[in-house]
Amino acid sequence: MWLVPKDSDGSHAKVAIPADLKAGLVRWYTGRGNEADHRASVSLVVTARENYKWIACDCQGDKPRPPLLSPAYLSEQETYYLRRLTSRPAHQRRCPFFLPQAPDRIRETAKDTLFEIEYPKGLFNAHKEAPEKLAQQPPDSEPDDRSRGVDIPRLARLLWMLLEAAHTNVIPSLPGDGRPEFSIKREFAKIYFAAQRFHIAPGIVLADHFYTKAIDYEKKRVHARLREAAKSWPGGYAPQAFLLLEANAISGSEIVTGLGTIEIRNRIQHTGIIRANVKPPFLVLAVVGEHSKREGYLALRAYAQPVFKGNQFIPIEREGDRELLETLTRFQYRMRAKGVQVAVKKPQFDILTEAGSVRPDLVVAFLDHRTGEEADFAIQVLRSRDAHYLELKQVERSRIAEIRPTLTTTPGEIGTDDLLDKLEAMIG
User: Fold this and answer.
1) Model confidence over 291-335: pLDDT tens digits?
2) Is the Cα torsion angle 155, 158, 159, 160 positive or negative in sign?
């Protein structure tokens, strides 16, 4: 086996891994090793990862392009593991690192299930000290379909919780006349104020290690302040800081802002919908921490969330969501002319009903100055005609109906006067 440069084909700059170290790695990976093998294996994987190396397997002999393994870190499980690079040559079937190629994953989406989104548990943190742990060979009993449920990164939940607390997921009611004032500075100020209510660790307020400008990271101000705070950081908690950046583009591991580009240690997490033509802007939450003394403090992981506008941080999931929010903004002006104040909220977490949890697409609240009535109603968007999908959405509607009236619409209605008329009819 060899260490080879990352992002190469493994054919050059090979550094041989000692035979006894390889043997210990194989023993641990196949479940036959002892703790000494485990420690040696972890050291090999961590060294490779920190030096931007891949591990080339020698099971195919001296072929120019060997099978490759990427040392990786699974943050949710706090475990290092060896990831097969399936686009490269395959391992020999007798090789301990061989696994049959999995079929395409069956991924659940909102189309398939009424999956729940609950508030994140614990403190506002997303990084723990990297444990000295390396995953072993997957068991033979692993399902062939490799199916999985909806996996929502912790950084996503933390971001949504912060936006809920700051009320940036709300379009407030219009002033008595004229237009409301929106600005990116004001949105960040609301979030910073909310950050004073959360703690990263006991006694460590989120706002003290919370940054909204790329230059603070580029100039190492984040790092310097974190190093100083680490001297008195509570034991058992990893020192960490957070970047919240408005981005005009994201790539695999880069956040591109108007004031600089930030490189993330791992691939940026996001809903697959971003790849489906959702345009910027994005709001990106990144955690800065230390996995190794050699690398020091780095932006380790990030989650990118599309938002309504650069000066209105309302999370969206699809490009059509922006059109719906624009329609509701038009509705606000229409109703103001008739003496009705209207506000709109995008719920980020489930609402509990007797029948189960539910999360409307939007909630519209109104105050009718003509009658004094103050109430709200929900909006549900049907995005498919699939029979199973419609059945699930009917369940969703029945749960929402327990707590408020509901208007159901379709993408074809968004932006039309017909939808404006239906919205007005909900007020009466």
Assistant:
1) 777 788 999 999 999 999 999 999 998 889 999 999 999 999 999
2) positive
The burial of 231, by beta-carbon neighbours within 10 Å (0-12 exposed, 13-18 middle, 19 or more buried), is given as: exposed
Largest CA distance in the chain: 84
Cβ-proximal residues to 229 (8 Å cutoff; 6+ apart), any chain: 204, 208, 209, 239
pLDDT at residue 272, rounded to an integer: 59
Q: Which amino acid is at 344?
A: V
Give the whole-angstrom CA distance, residue 21 versus residue 392.
53
Q: Minimum mean pLDDT among 64-78, 140-154, 295-309: which range?
A: 140-154
Whether pLDDT at 396 is above 60: yes
pTM > 0.90: yes or no: no
- What's the half-sphere exposure (Cβ side, CA atoms, 13 Å) at 247? 27
* DSSP bridge partners of 399: none
Q: What is the separation of C-alpha 140 from the centre of its chain, rounded to a whole number of angstroms?
A: 31
Residues 54 and 62: their CA atoms lie apart, in Å, by: 17
Q: Phi/psi of residue 19, each to 5°?
A: -60, -40
| Helix (H/G/I), strand (E/B), else coil: 417 | helix
Set out the domains of the chain in order of their start, with CATH numbers.
2-84 (no CATH), 154-313 (no CATH), 318-427 (3.40.1350)
Q: Which helix (H) or strand (E) holds 39?
A: helix 35-50
**Overall average pLDDT of the 90-99 stretch:** 86
* Main-chain phi, psi angles of 258, to 5 degrees: -70, -15
Measured distance CA(72)–CA(66) in Å, rounded: 19
Alpha-helical runs (H) found in 246-359: 319-336
Give, in order, the Cα–Cα distances in Å from 62 to each of 6, 18, 65, 230, 271: 19, 16, 8, 47, 41
pLDDT at 393 over 80: yes
pLDDT tens for residues 251-270? 889 999 988 899 998 889 88
For CA atoms 198, 201, 202, 205, the dihedral sign is: negative
Q: How far is CA 89 from CA 9, 57, 65, 96, 101, in A?
A: 9, 10, 7, 15, 12
Contact 212, 283 (CB under 8 A): no
